[in-house]
Amino acid sequence: MKDKNPRPKYRKSPKHSESVWAREVLSNIHQSLQSIMGSSPIPAFIIGKDHLIIYWNKALEELSGIKAKEVVGTSQQWRAFYKTARPCMADLLVDKYQKEIPQWYSGKFIKSKLITGAYEATDFFPELGKRGRWLRFTAAVIRNSKGSVIGAVETLEDITQAKRAEEAL
Question: What's the rounded mean pLDDT across residues 84-110?
């Protein structure tokens, strides 16, 4: 009588199964990130502690005109907003340079009332679009289970129409 569940002729090493498991976990995390951020109508990007872009969602592609494949894996998040390289708010938070936020966003930012260590700002970006755009943006650090900073997320909201209506009055 044949065994319906024959045992393998070799035994996998624990390291092999751990690496398979780790790849599966990372794949699941990436799929979850893709589902959450990818389906959001809010333009957003995520950078790692090394300032490399981990994620650039479809809404940000539409806002900036820059495709994710052009910038993911680079430290060129600034391209969506500025002519020359400079830190975005997420960059300052990853480096724990909150004291430098006023240098870059003087009179345009506040500490988030909802999330400790997060910041909100409003600014005009002349390089964005044909006539420039007003954006309200937020940035917050991402921490691992031990509380160490491993990256940051920045979200953006185009408030150009509201600002222009306000200015018209």
Answer: 91
CA torsion angle for 99, 53, 153, 146 (degrees, to 10)?
-80
- pLDDT single digits (tens) 100-143: 898 999 989 999 998 888 999 999 998 888 888 999 999 999 99
User: H/E/C letters for each residue in 30-87?
Assistant: HHHHHHHHHCCCCCEEEEECCCCEEEECHHHHHHHCCCHHHHCCCCCHHHHCCCCCCC
Domain boundaries, the chain: 12-40, 42-168
| Cβ contacts of 108 within 8 Å, gap of 6 or more | 121, 122, 123
pTM given for the model: 0.76
**How many other C-beta atoms lie within 10 A of the C-beta of residue 77?**
25
CATH of domain 42-168: 3.30.450.20
Closest CA to 141 of 46, 74, 68, 71: 46
How far CA 159 is from CA of 120, 135, 141, 163, in Å, comes to 14, 6, 24, 6
Amino acid residing at 71: V
Residue 152 binned pLDDT confidence (cut-offs 50, 70, 90): very high
